Amino acid sequence: MAVDADPDPTGNQACYTDDTGRLRSRGLSAERPVVEHSELLYRPHVASGHTPRRSGSVPRRNTGVRPQPWRPR
Fold it and tell me: Sign (positive/negative) of CA torsion 46, 50, 54, 56?
């Protein structure tokens, strides 16, 4: 899950860095409700409300190739 860059004590995602340097996260649950060992609490990125919004004044460009309709041979 995508989380904010800074740890947040009110967050609900326990995150740690694994041996390869990746940030791993798990949601706190009834079975494991507290952080363990080297985990820190983070807030999910979508919960922080920092999602970028697309400007309505810039039209969206269509790029690429559109598929042709299927026709039997």
Answer: positive
Sign of dihedral through CA atoms 5, 43, 47, 31?
positive
Judge whether 11 and 54 are in contact, CB under 8 Å. Answer: no
Enter the pTM of the model.
0.61
Burial class (CB in 10 A: 0-12, 13-18, 19+), 12: middle
Q: Is 27 helix (H, G, I), strand (E, B) or coil?
A: strand
- Stretch 27-38: mean pLDDT: 91
Q: What's the one-letter identity of residue 69?
A: P
Rounded to 5 degrees, what are φ and ψ at 47?
A: -75, -20
Tens digits of residue pLDDT in 48-73: 776 566 666 666 677 777 777 877 77
